């Protein structure tokens, strides 16, 4: 990995470590304004606009900003979106009317909102069928609507024994929402982020044209829209690359007391030829005493009761890895897991292994969501921060930040894992 600065999320992704600070804090709301009306000659659509009872479109997962729209469009077709955008385009530069696509609204800072503009509810297009193609001359893929959720794609493709290759930690997000960012998780070291696993897009441009784009066709549009933060067009359909789906997962967590060993072994694992299928990690700061609950969200059904481990108040680093397999590959997966663990220098008493289904593994954050919702702790402010740090700066960064600037992690996890530059 080279040590050079970069200025877009796609370029940053090729540089080093991804760090996510996940926390909570008091809300900070932007004042709302009384609504005004759209001009009366709005286009005739298959779907409809709604002007009232649309407060939900002024909220997101970050729960810190509220920008109240003038209207929400519930499209029934891609043509509805195209007509609406063409109409706004024709209003000319003197118009202040803005548009935001909204997938699942899990943004952090109002990115899917628009102040007195039009929010396009992409979920309305979910009724459009997904098409899994798996027996032609091409590698398997699925064609899906831009408003479709990743969890639904997983459920549909599993019917064919297939699944997307690259995920986010949480699947109740839309295709358009994650492809407008990047879509990074513990599989990105091997497959790249989700935006590297897209063959083709259908996009409604800022002028209201409906265009197909790919590496070969309208390539500039393709590369602008992927990771384009919703600023270069609206993704109405995407063709996502698939692979044979595993059915079972060995899910492993181990602790380190030294950052250098933790991060060195993460880097070793993402570079090794035979390695795990998912590699992440997180930081545990200033949790004094017994650390039994460091794995509490691991798997609620897991019967294993591992021994107790005392942190003595030190900052600890948890490596989280997973090995995927099918039942007939169980022995090989077992052997490869043992061999890989033998290469690592974690604190031996902290090894914790669970075996779960592939779906349960991918739905791990949703299981946490249900728990947090039951305690009223899901719809709270989330001032999350994502950083990409070059490899050359990661040790200095860790020394300054973990346990020095940050004094504890009780308000939310800090995820940290390396990604391969060439992916
Ligand atoms: C619990 C949780 C866990 C997460 N884990 C991860 C993770 O592991 N890895 C990761 O990379 N991210 C992760 N995220 C972040 C998530 O990927 C982004 O917030 C993503 O944008 C959310 O998708 P959404 O459908 O809710 O998007 P929205 O919030 O609806 O929209 C996000 C942005 O995309 C634009 N947009 C939405 N749909 C379209 C479209 N069809 N065409 C063009 N632009 C569009 C919006 O205008 C907005 O700018 C996580 C978020 C949450 C809440």
From TrEMBL:
One of its GO terms (biological process) is cytokinin metabolic process. It is an enzyme of class 1 (oxidoreductase). It catalyses: N(6)-dimethylallyladenine + A + H2O = 3-methyl-2-butenal + adenine + AH2. Belongs to the oxygen-dependent FAD-linked oxidoreductase family. Its cofactor is FAD. Residues 65-245 form the FAD-binding PCMH-type domain. Its EC number is 1.5.99.12. InterPro entries: Cytok_DH_C_sf, Cytokinin_DH_FAD/cytokin-bd, FAD-bd_PCMH, FAD-bd_PCMH-like_sf, FAD-bd_PCMH_sub1, FAD-bd_PCMH_sub2, FAD-linked_Oxase-like_C, FAD-linked_Oxidoreductases_BP. It comes from Carnegiea gigantea. One of its GO terms (molecular function) is FAD binding. Keywords: FAD, Flavoprotein, Glycoprotein, Membrane, Oxidoreductase, Signal, Transmembrane, Transmembrane helix. It comes from the Eukaryota. Gene3D superfamilies: 3.30.465.10, FAD-linked oxidases, C-terminal domain, Uridine Diphospho-n-acetylenolpyruvylglucosamine Reductase, domain 2. The chain crosses the membrane at residues 12-30. This is cytokinin dehydrogenase. The lineage of its organism: Eukaryota, Viridiplantae, Streptophyta, Embryophyta, Tracheophyta.
